[in-house]
Protein backbone atom coordinates (compact mmCIF):
# COMPACT_ATOMS: atom_id res chain seq x y z
CA UNK A 1 0.00 0.00 0.00
CA UNK A 2 1.43 3.43 -0.89
CA UNK A 3 1.79 5.99 1.85
CA UNK A 4 0.16 8.72 -0.24
CA UNK A 5 -2.50 8.67 -2.95
CA UNK A 6 -2.17 11.77 -5.14
CA UNK A 7 -5.55 12.29 -6.81
CA UNK A 8 -6.24 14.51 -9.81
CA UNK A 9 -9.36 14.98 -11.94
CA UNK A 10 -8.77 16.15 -15.52
CA UNK A 11 -11.30 17.79 -17.80
CA UNK A 12 -10.46 18.92 -21.34
CA UNK A 13 -7.11 20.11 -20.06
CA UNK A 14 -4.64 21.84 -22.36
CA UNK A 15 -1.76 19.50 -23.05
CA UNK A 16 0.90 21.93 -21.79
CA UNK A 17 -0.99 22.50 -18.51
CA UNK A 18 -1.62 18.78 -17.97
CA UNK A 19 2.00 17.87 -18.63
CA UNK A 20 3.21 20.52 -16.21
CA UNK A 21 0.88 19.19 -13.50
CA UNK A 22 1.83 15.54 -14.01
CA UNK A 23 5.55 16.26 -14.16
CA UNK A 24 5.41 18.33 -10.98
CA UNK A 25 4.14 15.25 -9.14
CA UNK A 26 6.67 12.94 -10.78
CA UNK A 27 9.43 15.31 -9.59
CA UNK A 28 8.43 15.09 -5.93
CA UNK A 29 11.21 14.34 -3.46
CA UNK A 30 8.82 11.94 -1.68
CA UNK A 31 8.53 8.79 -3.81
CA UNK A 32 6.14 6.41 -2.01
CA UNK A 33 2.86 7.36 -3.68
CA UNK A 34 0.32 6.35 -6.28
CA UNK A 35 -0.91 8.98 -8.73
CA UNK A 36 -4.56 8.47 -9.71
CA UNK A 37 -5.79 10.57 -12.64
CA UNK A 38 -9.51 10.52 -13.46
CA UNK A 39 -10.46 11.80 -16.90
CA UNK A 40 -13.85 13.52 -16.65
CA UNK A 41 -13.85 14.30 -20.39
CA UNK A 42 -13.93 10.75 -21.81
CA UNK A 43 -14.85 12.06 -25.26
CA UNK A 44 -11.48 13.83 -25.43
CA UNK A 45 -8.75 11.32 -26.44
CA UNK A 46 -5.93 13.84 -25.90
CA UNK A 47 -6.11 13.55 -22.10
CA UNK A 48 -5.52 9.81 -22.19
CA UNK A 49 -2.80 10.23 -24.81
CA UNK A 50 -0.90 12.65 -22.57
CA UNK A 51 -1.20 10.41 -19.50
CA UNK A 52 -0.21 7.27 -21.45
CA UNK A 53 2.95 9.00 -22.65
CA UNK A 54 4.40 8.75 -19.12
CA UNK A 55 5.88 5.35 -18.32
CA UNK A 56 5.70 5.59 -14.55
CA UNK A 57 4.14 2.63 -12.72
CA UNK A 58 2.79 4.95 -10.01
CA UNK A 59 0.36 6.55 -12.47
CA UNK A 60 -3.11 5.00 -12.57
CA UNK A 61 -5.41 6.28 -15.30
CA UNK A 62 -9.19 6.03 -14.89
CA UNK A 63 -11.89 7.29 -17.24
CA UNK A 64 -15.37 8.32 -16.15
CA UNK A 65 -18.07 6.69 -18.32
CA UNK A 66 -19.57 10.13 -18.94
CA UNK A 67 -18.76 13.61 -17.66
CA UNK A 68 -19.70 13.53 -13.96
CA UNK A 69 -18.53 16.94 -12.78
CA UNK A 70 -15.84 17.86 -10.32
CA UNK A 71 -17.51 16.78 -7.05
CA UNK A 72 -18.46 13.33 -8.31
CA UNK A 73 -14.97 12.95 -9.75
CA UNK A 74 -13.47 13.87 -6.36
CA UNK A 75 -15.65 11.23 -4.69
CA UNK A 76 -14.64 8.62 -7.23
CA UNK A 77 -11.00 9.43 -6.52
CA UNK A 78 -11.62 8.97 -2.78
CA UNK A 79 -13.04 5.51 -3.46
CA UNK A 80 -10.04 4.56 -5.60
CA UNK A 81 -7.36 5.84 -3.22
CA UNK A 82 -5.41 3.26 -1.22
CA UNK A 83 -2.85 5.40 0.59
CA UNK A 84 -2.63 6.27 4.26
CA UNK A 85 -2.96 9.90 3.17
CA UNK A 86 -4.74 11.46 0.20
CA UNK A 87 -3.35 14.54 -1.55
CA UNK A 88 -5.41 16.60 -3.99
CA UNK A 89 -3.94 18.11 -7.17
CA UNK A 90 -5.36 20.34 -9.92
CA UNK A 91 -4.91 19.31 -13.57
CA UNK A 92 -3.47 22.72 -14.54
CA UNK A 93 -1.28 23.65 -11.55
CA UNK A 94 2.23 22.85 -10.31
CA UNK A 95 3.22 21.20 -7.02
CA UNK A 96 6.66 22.23 -5.82
CA UNK A 97 9.12 19.34 -5.22
CA UNK A 98 8.94 19.27 -1.41
CA UNK A 99 5.15 19.48 -1.16
CA UNK A 100 4.34 15.84 -0.45
CA UNK A 101 7.33 15.33 1.84
CA UNK A 102 6.51 18.31 4.06
CA UNK A 103 2.80 17.56 4.34
CA UNK A 104 3.49 13.91 5.09
CA UNK A 105 5.99 14.83 7.81
CA UNK A 106 3.52 17.30 9.33
CA UNK A 107 0.64 14.82 9.51
CA UNK A 108 2.93 12.13 10.91
CA UNK A 109 4.01 14.45 13.74
CA UNK A 110 0.56 15.99 14.41
CA UNK A 111 -1.89 13.11 14.93
CA UNK A 112 -4.60 15.52 16.07
CA UNK A 113 -4.69 17.16 12.62
CA UNK A 114 -6.91 15.53 10.00
CA UNK A 115 -6.17 17.78 7.03
CA UNK A 116 -3.40 20.21 6.10
CA UNK A 117 -3.03 22.67 3.21
CA UNK A 118 -0.09 24.84 2.16
CA UNK A 119 0.73 28.35 1.04
CA UNK A 120 0.68 29.00 -2.70
CA UNK A 121 1.65 31.45 -5.40
CA UNK A 122 -0.64 32.51 -8.25
CA UNK A 123 0.65 32.59 -11.81
CA UNK A 124 -0.64 32.36 -15.38
CA UNK A 125 -1.95 34.11 -18.44
CA UNK A 126 -4.15 36.54 -16.47
CA UNK A 127 -0.99 37.95 -14.87
CA UNK A 128 -1.69 37.01 -11.25
CA UNK A 129 1.48 36.79 -9.16
CA UNK A 130 0.13 37.04 -5.62
CA UNK A 131 1.54 34.89 -2.81
CA UNK A 132 -1.14 33.56 -0.45
CA UNK A 133 -0.62 32.25 3.08
CA UNK A 134 -3.86 31.19 4.74
CA UNK A 135 -4.32 30.96 8.54
CA UNK A 136 -2.23 28.12 9.95
CA UNK A 137 -4.09 27.20 13.16
CA UNK A 138 -7.33 25.28 13.62
CA UNK A 139 -9.15 28.00 15.57
CA UNK A 140 -8.75 30.69 12.92
CA UNK A 141 -9.46 28.26 10.07
CA UNK A 142 -12.76 27.15 11.60
CA UNK A 143 -13.65 30.74 12.45
CA UNK A 144 -13.09 31.75 8.81
CA UNK A 145 -15.30 29.16 7.13
CA UNK A 146 -18.47 31.28 7.09
CA UNK A 147 -16.78 33.97 5.03
CA UNK A 148 -14.31 32.21 2.77
CA UNK A 149 -12.38 29.02 2.10
CA UNK A 150 -9.36 29.32 4.44
CA UNK A 151 -7.57 26.33 2.88
CA UNK A 152 -6.64 26.18 -0.80
CA UNK A 153 -8.24 22.96 -1.99
CA UNK A 154 -5.67 21.59 -4.47
CA UNK A 155 -2.97 21.89 -1.78
CA UNK A 156 -4.66 19.63 0.77
CA UNK A 157 -3.50 16.32 2.20
CA UNK A 158 -5.71 14.40 4.65
CA UNK A 159 -6.06 11.09 6.45
CA UNK A 160 -7.95 8.44 4.45
CA UNK A 161 -8.90 6.65 7.67
CA UNK A 162 -10.76 9.77 8.83
CA UNK A 163 -13.01 10.06 5.80
CA UNK A 164 -13.65 6.33 5.74
CA UNK A 165 -14.50 6.09 9.44
CA UNK A 166 -16.90 9.05 9.30
CA UNK A 167 -18.16 8.55 5.73
CA UNK A 168 -17.05 12.05 4.65
CA UNK A 169 -17.45 12.87 0.98
CA UNK A 170 -17.73 15.95 -1.23
CA UNK A 171 -21.13 17.61 -1.59
CA UNK A 172 -22.15 16.76 -5.15
CA UNK A 173 -24.72 19.56 -5.23
CA UNK A 174 -21.90 22.12 -5.37
CA UNK A 175 -19.71 23.11 -8.31
CA UNK A 176 -17.22 25.12 -6.27
CA UNK A 177 -18.03 25.20 -2.55
CA UNK A 178 -17.77 21.44 -2.08
CA UNK A 179 -14.32 22.10 -0.62
CA UNK A 180 -15.66 24.33 2.16
CA UNK A 181 -18.29 21.74 3.09
CA UNK A 182 -15.55 19.08 3.08
CA UNK A 183 -13.40 21.12 5.51
CA UNK A 184 -16.40 21.70 7.76
CA UNK A 185 -17.15 17.97 7.92
CA UNK A 186 -13.53 16.99 8.62
CA UNK A 187 -13.29 19.81 11.17
CA UNK A 188 -16.05 18.16 13.19
CA UNK A 189 -13.78 15.14 13.72
CA UNK A 190 -10.21 16.49 13.74
CA UNK A 191 -8.18 19.68 13.62
CA UNK A 192 -7.40 21.58 10.43
CA UNK A 193 -4.11 23.28 9.56
CA UNK A 194 -2.10 25.04 6.86
CA UNK A 195 1.64 25.00 6.35
CA UNK A 196 2.92 28.56 5.83
CA UNK A 197 5.46 27.50 3.20
CA UNK A 198 4.75 28.14 -0.47
CA UNK A 199 4.57 24.59 -1.83
CA UNK A 200 2.16 25.06 -4.73
CA UNK A 201 1.70 27.21 -7.83
CA UNK A 202 -1.92 28.00 -8.75
CA UNK A 203 -2.53 28.82 -12.41
CA UNK A 204 -4.97 31.60 -13.38
CA UNK A 205 -6.53 31.39 -16.85
CA UNK A 206 -9.79 32.22 -18.60
CA UNK A 207 -11.13 28.63 -18.55
CA UNK A 208 -11.09 28.29 -14.75
CA UNK A 209 -14.31 27.04 -13.10
CA UNK A 210 -14.45 30.20 -10.99
CA UNK A 211 -14.40 32.33 -14.14
CA UNK A 212 -17.12 30.36 -15.98
CA UNK A 213 -19.67 29.77 -13.20
CA UNK A 214 -19.94 32.96 -11.14
CA UNK A 215 -23.78 32.97 -10.78
CA UNK A 216 -23.83 29.32 -9.68
CA UNK A 217 -20.97 29.90 -7.25
CA UNK A 218 -22.81 32.84 -5.70
CA UNK A 219 -25.87 30.62 -5.14
CA UNK A 220 -23.64 28.02 -3.51
CA UNK A 221 -22.18 30.65 -1.20
CA UNK A 222 -25.69 31.65 -0.13
CA UNK A 223 -26.57 28.00 0.48
CA UNK A 224 -23.42 27.42 2.54
CA UNK A 225 -24.17 30.52 4.65
CA UNK A 226 -27.61 29.02 5.36
CA UNK A 227 -26.07 25.66 6.28
CA UNK A 228 -23.50 27.28 8.61
CA UNK A 229 -26.11 29.43 10.35
CA UNK A 230 -28.39 26.42 10.88
CA UNK A 231 -25.50 24.35 12.26
CA UNK A 232 -24.60 27.21 14.62
CA UNK A 233 -28.21 27.63 15.76
CA UNK A 234 -28.25 31.24 14.57
CA UNK A 235 -31.11 32.96 12.80
CA UNK A 236 -30.89 36.02 10.59
CA UNK A 237 -33.88 37.89 9.23
CA UNK A 238 -34.33 37.77 5.43
CA UNK A 239 -32.84 41.27 5.18
CA UNK A 240 -29.87 40.36 7.38
CA UNK A 241 -29.25 37.21 5.31
CA UNK A 242 -29.36 39.34 2.15
CA UNK A 243 -26.74 41.69 3.64
CA UNK A 244 -24.55 38.70 4.58
CA UNK A 245 -24.82 37.17 1.12
CA UNK A 246 -24.49 40.33 -0.98
CA UNK A 247 -22.22 42.61 1.03
CA UNK A 248 -20.51 41.05 4.05
CA UNK A 249 -19.00 38.10 2.17
CA UNK A 250 -18.78 39.67 -1.28
CA UNK A 251 -15.47 41.45 -1.81
CA UNK A 252 -16.61 42.76 -5.21
CA UNK A 253 -19.73 44.49 -3.85
CA UNK A 254 -20.13 48.29 -4.18
CA UNK A 255 -21.41 49.96 -1.02
CA UNK A 256 -22.73 53.38 -2.01
CA UNK A 257 -24.94 54.46 0.90
CA UNK A 258 -24.60 54.81 4.67
CA UNK A 259 -27.62 52.63 5.42
CA UNK A 260 -26.09 49.58 3.73
CA UNK A 261 -22.77 50.07 5.52
CA UNK A 262 -24.61 50.40 8.85
CA UNK A 263 -26.47 47.15 8.11
CA UNK A 264 -23.17 45.40 7.35
CA UNK A 265 -21.87 46.51 10.74
CA UNK A 266 -25.05 45.39 12.50
CA UNK A 267 -24.96 41.91 10.88
CA UNK A 268 -21.32 41.38 11.80
CA UNK A 269 -21.98 42.53 15.37
CA UNK A 270 -24.94 40.14 15.61
CA UNK A 271 -22.95 37.18 14.26
CA UNK A 272 -20.14 37.82 16.74
CA UNK A 273 -22.53 38.16 19.69
CA UNK A 274 -24.54 35.06 18.74
CA UNK A 275 -21.37 33.00 18.32
CA UNK A 276 -19.98 34.13 21.66
CA UNK A 277 -23.22 33.04 23.33
CA UNK A 278 -23.25 29.65 21.61
CA UNK A 279 -19.52 28.85 21.34
CA UNK A 280 -19.95 27.43 17.84
CA UNK A 281 -16.47 28.49 16.66
CA UNK A 282 -13.62 30.06 18.69
CA UNK A 283 -14.99 33.46 19.78
CA UNK A 284 -11.84 35.60 19.83
CA UNK A 285 -10.76 34.44 16.37
CA UNK A 286 -14.27 34.84 14.93
CA UNK A 287 -14.64 38.37 16.30
CA UNK A 288 -11.24 39.35 14.92
CA UNK A 289 -12.31 38.09 11.48
CA UNK A 290 -15.64 39.93 11.73
CA UNK A 291 -13.73 43.11 12.62
CA UNK A 292 -11.45 42.66 9.62
CA UNK A 293 -14.45 42.25 7.31
CA UNK A 294 -16.08 45.35 8.76
CA UNK A 295 -13.01 47.45 8.03
CA UNK A 296 -12.78 45.98 4.51
CA UNK A 297 -16.38 47.02 3.83
CA UNK A 298 -15.68 50.45 5.30
CA UNK A 299 -12.89 50.78 2.75
CA UNK A 300 -15.30 49.62 0.04
CA UNK A 301 -17.81 52.29 1.11
CA UNK A 302 -15.11 54.95 1.11
CA UNK A 303 -14.04 54.03 -2.45
CA UNK A 304 -17.45 53.54 -4.05
CA UNK A 305 -19.62 55.86 -2.00
CA UNK A 306 -17.26 58.40 -0.46
CA UNK A 307 -18.77 57.32 2.86
CA UNK A 308 -17.10 58.11 6.16
CA UNK A 309 -17.35 55.03 8.37
CA UNK A 310 -16.35 56.61 11.70
CA UNK A 311 -19.85 56.32 13.17
CA UNK A 312 -20.19 52.65 12.15
CA UNK A 313 -16.78 51.76 13.59
CA UNK A 314 -17.50 53.64 16.82
CA UNK A 315 -20.83 51.87 17.29
CA UNK A 316 -19.46 48.39 16.65
CA UNK A 317 -18.39 46.17 19.54
CA UNK A 318 -15.95 44.31 17.33
CA UNK A 319 -12.20 44.56 18.12
CA UNK A 320 -11.33 46.93 15.28
CA UNK A 321 -7.63 47.81 15.32
CA UNK A 322 -5.94 50.82 13.81
CA UNK A 323 -3.95 49.44 10.92
CA UNK A 324 -3.28 49.45 7.21
CA UNK A 325 -6.92 48.99 6.19
CA UNK A 326 -8.06 52.00 8.20
CA UNK A 327 -5.24 54.05 6.74
CA UNK A 328 -6.42 52.99 3.28
CA UNK A 329 -9.96 54.10 4.23
CA UNK A 330 -8.64 57.53 5.08
CA UNK A 331 -6.68 57.72 1.84
CA UNK A 332 -9.79 56.75 -0.10
CA UNK A 333 -11.86 59.39 1.68
CA UNK A 334 -9.20 62.00 0.98
CA UNK A 335 -9.20 60.95 -2.66
CA UNK A 336 -13.01 61.28 -2.79
CA UNK A 337 -12.84 64.67 -1.08
CA UNK A 338 -14.55 63.61 2.16
CA UNK A 339 -14.36 66.05 5.05
CA UNK A 340 -13.48 63.78 7.93
CA UNK A 341 -11.20 60.78 8.39
CA UNK A 342 -12.30 57.48 9.95
Describe the structure.
Helix content is 47%, strand content 16%. With 342 residues, the chain is an alpha/beta fold. The chain has two domains: 4-210, Alpha-Beta Complex (Spore Coat Polysaccharide Biosynthesis Protein SpsA, Chain A); 233-336, no CATH class. Strands 1, 2, 3, 4, 5, 6, 7, 8 and 9 form a nine-stranded mixed sheet that branches. It starts with a strand and ends in a 6-residue tail after the last helix.
Please describe the topology of this protein.
Blueprint: E1 4-10, H1 15-26, E2 33-39, H2 45-52, E3 59-63, H3 70-80, E4 85-88, E5 94-95, H4 99-109, E6 113-124, E7 131-132, H5 138-144, E8 157-159, H6 160-165, H7 178-187, E9 191-204, H8 209-212, H9 214-232, H10 238-248, H11 258-278, H12 283-305, H13 310-315, H14 324-336
Parallel strand pairs: 1-2, 1-4, 2-3, 6-9
Antiparallel strand pairs: 4-8, 5-9, 6-7, 6-8
- Measured by DSSP, the beta-strand proportion falls in 15-25%
Bulk shape:
globular
State the end-to-end CA separation.
60 Å
In CATH's first tier, which class of the largest domain applies? Alpha Beta
Number of strand elements = 9
Amino acid sequence: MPLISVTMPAYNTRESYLRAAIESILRQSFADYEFIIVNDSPENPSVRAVVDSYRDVRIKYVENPTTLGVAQSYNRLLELAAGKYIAMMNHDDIALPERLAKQYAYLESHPEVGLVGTGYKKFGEINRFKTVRNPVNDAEIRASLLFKSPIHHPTIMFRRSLIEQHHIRYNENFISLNDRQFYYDIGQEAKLANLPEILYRYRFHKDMVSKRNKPAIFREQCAFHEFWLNAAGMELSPKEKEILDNYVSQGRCHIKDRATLAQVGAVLDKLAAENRARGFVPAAEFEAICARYLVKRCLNAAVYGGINSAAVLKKSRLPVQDGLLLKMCNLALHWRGAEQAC
